[in-house]
Amino acid sequence: MLVVYKPGSGRKLQRQLKWLRAQVKQRQLVVRWYDTSGFYGQDCEAIRAQAQDQQQVVVVGGDGTINLVVNAIVGLPVTLACLPAGTGNDFCRQFGYAERHWRAAVFSARSISIDLGAIGERYFVNIAGVGFNAEVVQGMRGNKRAGALSYVWGGIRQLFCAPTISVATSQGPVLTRGMMLLLANGRYFAAGLQPAPCAKLHDGQLECMWFSASVWWQRLVVFAAMLVGCHQRLPWVYREKRAELTITTPNLIVEADGDLVAQTPVTICSLQGAMQLRIPPESSLLD
Question: Would you tell me which of 74, 107, 181, 272 could form a disulfide with 204, CB atoms 3.0–4.6 Å apart?
Fold first, then answer.
C-alpha cells in the first residue's frame, strides 16, 4: 500500500492520518508514505515510480491530491482509495458516503470502475472547462484561506469582471458570447456547487454545459441558481452528453479539478472505466 498526502496541519488531514497510522500498526501492514512537495511534475513521477509494485494507493486529502495521484497512476494495475481531507472534497461528495464508509473502503475487497476525463495526457476526475471557472481559479492563485467559501468569494468577484467567451468546436456551431463551457465527468466543483447534476462517473460520457449568460445580472442569476441547484431551468443553460469535444478557438485557458492545465485548441474526452476505485463493503453501508 502506498499512502499519498499533502503535508499540512488541517484538522481533517491530521485526524485521517492518525486513524490510518493506527490501522497500519494494528494490522501490521508494510506501507510506503509519500508527502507531496507541491511541484506537480516531480510529485507525479515519484508517485508513479513508487506505485509500480503496489496494489493500492490511498489518497489522504482533497480534490487536488486526488487529481495528482490519478494522473500519476493512470494505466497502472492499482486501485485508488480515498480518505477525504481537503477543502472541497467534490469527487468524494458525489458518492454520499460518510467518513466511516471511506475508512471502511481502504480495507475493502470491493471496487468499481470509474471514468476519467482527458485533456491530452492530463486527466481529471471532476469537471474541466473554459471561461468563468478558469477566471475564478486564476484569480484565486491557490489562496483558500477562507476554506470552502474561497470559491464563493472568488466567483462573486469574477461575476462582474470575467470576460465573455465565444467557443468554436469541431462538432457543432460556434457558441457565442457566453459565461463558460463545462465538460463534467463528475457532478461537483468549487467546494459543493453542483453544475452538472446529471453527470455520471461510469457512462463513458461527459456532461457538456454551456452557460450563455453574457451580462452581469444574468451571471448573477446563474450563480445564485447554481447555489440552490435550480440553474438547469434557466434559459441561458444548455446541456448535452458527448464522449469527446474538440475546442478549436485558440488561447482560452482550460481549468480542470481546480488547476489551470492547458490552453485551447484542445480535445477533451471521456476514458470509460479508466480507474478502479475502492468502495466500502456492503455490510458497512448498513450500519
Answer: 272
